């Protein structure tokens, strides 16, 4: 008698479709709009308008995708956002 082992691996569907990850920025009660906007411009290369729109979305909806791309390119940017005191993660 032999035993077969089934291994289940969780894989994000969006990663399978396009190999892209995204940085999600979350709302907090600590950072000002100006700080969030300045940080997005500096770290994510956003325009002022784009950064402002993301800050507004984060404020009213609780989160916003601020950057998409390959995980290895997003990781340093996400770490910079975290170092600036923002709440973010890569999905």
Automatic annotation (TrEMBL):
Keywords: Hydrolase, Protease. One of its GO terms (biological process) is proteolysis. SUPFAM superfamilies: ClpS-like. Residues 22-83 form the Adaptor protein ClpS core domain. The keyword Cytoplasm does not apply. It comes from the Bacteria. It holds the Pfam family ClpS. One of its GO terms (molecular function) is peptidase activity. This is ATP-dependent Clp protease adaptor ClpS. It comes from Myroides odoratus. The lineage of its organism: Bacteria, Pseudomonadati, Bacteroidota, Flavobacteriia, Flavobacteriales.
